Amino acid sequence: MDVMQRLWDAEYALKDHVEAVLRETIGPDWAVRCGIREGLLDKWAAQRKAAPANDGGAEKGLLAYCDLSDLAMILRDRWDALFSEVFGDLATMEVYLRVLERYTE
Question: What is the pTM of this model?
Answer without folding.
Answer: 0.89
